[in-house]
Amino acid sequence: MTVVVRDLPKVELHCHLFGVLKPQMIRAIQQQMPDFPIGADELADLYPVDDFDSFWRWWQPIHRLRMSDPVFFHPILLMYIEQLKAQHVRYAEINIPTISVEQVQAMRQLADATETPDFQIEFIAAIGRQRPLDESRNAVDLAIDLFKEGLICGFMSVGDESARPIRDFAAEFDRIYSAGMGIEIHAGEWRGPESVWDAINYGHPQRIGHGVHAFEDDKLIAYLLDNNIHIEMCPTSNLLTGSIPDIEHHPLGQARDLGMSISINTDDPGVFSCDMNSEFRLSAEHFGFTEDDFQQVYAQSLAARFQPDLRIDPLAF
Ligand SMILES: [Zn+2]
Q: What is the whole-number distance in angstroms between the Cα of residue 243 and the centre of ligand 1?
């Protein structure tokens, strides 16, 4: 029986704010903000994104946005929240850039105004593995301040795993862990199981982002199961960045069959032209996810959230 995924309640734990941008979103923003730092045609020229190189090319103009006035981030957040609501996402944790307490407060106020008894939005800060280490220290200082102010609930390590192991950031992750923040590490995305072991040994992760290559190591899978480490699955992302050769090689179905704690996510819906509905449809079509499976994913995703204060009804599936 085909599952109608559109109306199912959903949780998104793995999505980067700038990765939601699309040319048509930029055109809409430019109606209000003609100075928006990226052109719609400039971004349109960076598609298709269908391998590792085209993926990283897409991010090049985003660096300009990252360095711009954070007021430009506001319409992106609000438009994405509208999209989440339209897809029946009930709870989402969005990775935002590590900007000042005042600037994140402004974004938090915008998010608060969109919340309903059926919709909760949370923020996560991040460091990129390819950034210089002293920059990471500053990012962690700021993240701890943001966390103490109740503005973010967790911390992510993002970027190309080949750039640097988590071992190099161990002192920073110790500080994040001691502060009580939830930790997610993107690992096993393009590198093998050793990258996930590195994350576990040095980063205190409660969640692994992607983790597709973890499934090549039975001991690692046993460890993840025994320690209830959650895996954030992003199947379309993994296909289009070349971390798997084809969708049948994705471990999503295997993870469900093993009883692992998993979520289904978009990662960068603007980059990959996907959304939560398309990821759910893919899960049903290629891996036979049933409504019961999606209900299980919903419960597991909520249980793996970093924000203890749940403001929606967890049972309303
Ligand atoms: Zn990601």
A: 13
Instruction: For the beta carbon of residue 255, count every other beta carbon within 10 angstroms.
Output: 22
Q: What is the pLDDT of residues 242-269, one digit of tens each?
A: 999 999 999 999 999 999 999 999 999 9
Q: How far is the centre of ligand 1, averaged over its atoms, from the C-alpha of 307 (Å)?
A: 19
Residue 38 counted as domain residue: yes
In angstroms, how far apart are the furthest CA atoms of the chain? 54
Q: Would 311 be classed as within a structural domain?
A: no
Domain-located, residue 5:
no
Q: Which residues contact 250 (CB under 8 A, 6 or more apart)?
A: 212, 233, 235, 238, 239, 244, 286, 287
CA of residue 1 to ligand 1 center, whole Å = 32
What is the 210 CA–ligand 1 centroid distance (Å)?
8
What distance in angstroms lies between residue 15's CA and the mean position of ligand 1's atoms? Answer: 6
Query: How many A from CA of 16 to the centre of ligand 1?
Result: 6
What is the total count of domains within the chain? Answer: 1
Buried b / exposed e across 87-106, counting CB within 10 Å, b at 16+? Answer: bbbbbbbbbbbbbeeebbee
Q: Quote the domain boundaries for residue 265.
A: 10-303
CATH of the domain at 88: 3.20.20.140
Alpha helices per DSSP H over 179-251: 193-203, 218-226, 235-240
Q: Mind listing the pLDDT tens digit for each residue in 126-149?
A: 999 998 888 899 999 999 999 999
In the reported structure, the alpha carbon of residue 157 is separated from the centroid of ligand 1 by a whole-number distance in angstroms of 9
Q: Tell me whether residue 161 is in a domain.
A: yes
What type of residue sits at position 45? Answer: D
